[in-house]
User: Which sequence fits this backbone?
């Protein structure tokens, strides 16, 4: 790739005409970066056809139309009796039908009078509103008749954000692609020209088919993106296995594993023991371990992680267990600490809450090597935290941490082993795509004595009947989670809010608790702790999805998920995993609304038919594709621009095969790795 093209792609968007620093910042929030390249990889989501009509009476309210209108009169806006009135432009189409154009920004009346003078014909394009007479609010295009060709018959619609209009996106796109030919001129690599030609076709779609994952140009771009990713994985694996990155294997100094197994009040499952054998084998190699342990909710990943930490302690080295929240860190600590005490290992917890003298004591203990196992949040890789010999890093809820956070903790040691845990089951081929640089172990058995959770779906109209049944169960000693999708009521949504449901349930259960993400963290943790206390009067906890991960209340045997049809399968399965953590029979009730779709019912049927997280993950993948499943860059999953796993499985295999066959990435592959930000690129 030529230097001139490279510099163009790295240009900050603020230097594009009409953008500037403010809009560039807004673009950065939406694009995940503010370079020209970031914009080019942000492709339209769909198209909007702007059909021209002379007779507005044939259009359906809600349609986006383009229509020639004769301006008849103006009605100025302003305030009347405390209410704001819009500026109205009264027009008529060629059939004589009256059409009202409305503008609510009343300070710009002079502008609109000039743009739409009385007696003139104008081509107007916008959304036809549902009112007593045909109305277009804030048309997107207004052109003189001789300039009607400036209104696109097909408009590409981009995923946008606050302060960014589709006109702004189109303007930036047009400027970038107008400059591109000069930057590519003289490019000798045909792949470069073909890549940017494919991008051009996607940014200027002629129909909705052009944006489908299996269209010619989208499939090309998806293959190149996969090739960049798979090449980065191959390089990562080769680097890890390079003799220059080998480490001295720590000799065993102590015998602790027998003591560990003796502390267990149960027999480990075959899947747990198989996973431990794989982990222990990794620890004996001179190449640092990079292993992902996938396990369904309640499969016993924490015990496996503790066993790995004890094994590391046999060599005298330390283990850091990184959890995404204070609550989950404290729960891990509460579970691990008593077992460590029996074994004779010093275990501690370190979070952002630790201040002053208590924090200094913990840091001293870590620095001296006395603390062998530390559980905590991102505080574990703070600048002032030092380890004597960090041998193992365990990352719980792996998908909630980015690579940078993970590596910041690993940098505290000398090539420490990495063990990542994920309670979100992923189809094996998909996990190879996401974690191709890691070895994968799967815990696919539940501990002995665990009963399958009985799951049923129930229409919301039977909610009063459900409450009566819950009262009987609670009186018999049960504890109940009740989950709602929203915090507060909203005019924009018909979903149930946790606050209003809490107010209603308080009539039946005076000691009900309430938690949601907008509460003060200390208050939220206090409510959760009270609910978990067996001696507490709080028997029902009304919550949002803040309880989805890391809440362990063995006495909780019932979970109600309201508006369940609005949740994804993975989220529903995670929520259901909040119960069934003891040896008592547990139940999950999926409450669905009146307007549930066929797809929504199918999702709920999957939950009622199986509690196998890997089966559910496969169904989730089939029903939703990877867009929602993979999530966003912030959550630590792969953020693909063009890849749709359900459509591009063959492309993945092809890209993986090509990447493995290369002794070293050629120039084009290195260019792709720069374009898709896969860790290896061309230098300036």
Assistant:
């Amino acid at each position: 790739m030529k230097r001139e093209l490279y510099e163009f792609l790295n240009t900050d968007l603020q230097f594009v005409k009409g953008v500037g620093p403010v809009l560039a910042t807004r673009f950065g929030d939406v694009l995940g970066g503010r370079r020209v390249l970031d914009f080019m990889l942000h492709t339209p989501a769909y198209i909007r056809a702007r059909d021209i009509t002379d007779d507005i009476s044939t259009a359906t309210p809600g349609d986006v139309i383009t229509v020639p209108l004769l301006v008849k009169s103006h009605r100025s806006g302003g305030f009347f009796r405390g209410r704001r009135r819009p500026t109205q432009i009264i027009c008529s189409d060629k059939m004589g039908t009256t059409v009202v154009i409305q503008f609510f920004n009343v300070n710009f009346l002079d502008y609109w009078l000039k743009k739409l003078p009385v007696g003139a014909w104008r081509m107007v394009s916008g959304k036809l509103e549902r009112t007593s007479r045909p109305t277009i609010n804030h048309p997107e295009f207004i052109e003189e008749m001789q300039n009607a060709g400036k209104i696109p018959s097909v408009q590409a619609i981009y995923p946008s954000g606050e302060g960014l209009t589709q006109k702004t996106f189109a303007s930036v796109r047009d400027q970038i692609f107008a400059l591109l030919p000069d930057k590519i001129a003289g490019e000798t690599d045909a792949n470069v020209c073909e890549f940017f030609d494919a991008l051009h076709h996607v940014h200027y779609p002629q129909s909705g088919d052009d944006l489908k994952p299996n269209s010619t140009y989208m499939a090309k771009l998806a293959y190149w993106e996969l090739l960049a990713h798979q090449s980065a994985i191959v390089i990562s694996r080769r680097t890890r296995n390079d003799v220059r990155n080998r480490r001295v294997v720590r000799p065993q100094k102590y015998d602790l594993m027998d003591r560990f197994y003796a502390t267990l009040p149960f027999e480990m499952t075959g899947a747990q023991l198989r996973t431990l054998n794989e982990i222990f084998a990794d620890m004996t190699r001179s190449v640092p371990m990079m292993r992902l342990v996938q396990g369904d909710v309640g499969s016993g990943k924490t015990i496996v992680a503790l066993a790995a930490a004890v094994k590391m302690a046999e060599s005298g080295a330390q283990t850091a267990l990184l959890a995404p929240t204070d609550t989950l860190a404290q729960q891990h600590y509460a579970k691990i600490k008593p077992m460590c005490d029996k074994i004779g290992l010093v275990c501690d917890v370190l979070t952002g809450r630790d201040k002053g003298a208590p924090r200094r004591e913990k840091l001293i203990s870590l620095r001296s090597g006395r603390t062998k196992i530390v559980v905590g949040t991102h505080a574990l890789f703070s600048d002032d935290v030092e380890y004597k010999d960090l041998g193992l890093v365990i990352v719980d809820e792996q998908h909630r941490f980015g690579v940078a956070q993970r590596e910041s903790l690993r940098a505290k040691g000398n090539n420490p082993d990495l063990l990542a845990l994920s309670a979100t089951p992923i189809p094996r081929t998909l996990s190879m795509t996401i974690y191709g640089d890691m070895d994968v172990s799967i815990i696919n058995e539940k501990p002995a004595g665990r009963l399958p959770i009985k799951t049923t779906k129930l229409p919301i109209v039977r909610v009063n009947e459900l409450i009566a049944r819950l009262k009987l169960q609670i009186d018999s000693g049960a504890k109940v989670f009740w989950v709602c999708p929203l915090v507060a009521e909203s005019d924009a949504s018909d979903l149930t809010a946790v606050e209003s449901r809490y107010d209603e349930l308080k009539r039946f259960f005076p000691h009900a608790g309430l938690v949601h993400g907008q509460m003060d963290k200390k208050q939220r943790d206090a409510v959760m702790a009270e609910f978990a206390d067996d001696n507490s009067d709080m028997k029902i906890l009304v919550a949002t999805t803040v309880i989805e991960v890391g809440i362990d209340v063995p006495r909780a045997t019932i979970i109600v998920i309201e508006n369940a049809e609005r949740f994804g399968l993975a989220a529903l399965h995670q929520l259901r995993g909040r119960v069934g953590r003891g040896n008592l029979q547990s139940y999950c009730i999926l409450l669905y609304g009146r307007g549930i779709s066929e797809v929504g019912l199918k999702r709920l049927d999957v939950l009622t038919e199986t509690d196998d997280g890997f089966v559910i993950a496969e169904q989730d993948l089939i029903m939703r594709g990877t867009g929602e499943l993979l999530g966003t860059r912030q959550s630590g999953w792969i953020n693909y621009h063009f890849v749709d796993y359900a459509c591009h499985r063959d492309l993945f295999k092809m890209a993986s095969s090509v990447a493995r066959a290369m002794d070293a990435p050629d120039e084009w592959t290195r260019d792709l790795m720069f374009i898709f930000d896969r860790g290896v690129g061309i230098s300036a």
About this structure: Residues 625-637, 680-684 have pLDDT under 50 and may be disordered. The first strand starts at residue 46 and ends at 49. The CA atoms of residues 172 and 196 lie 16 Å apart.
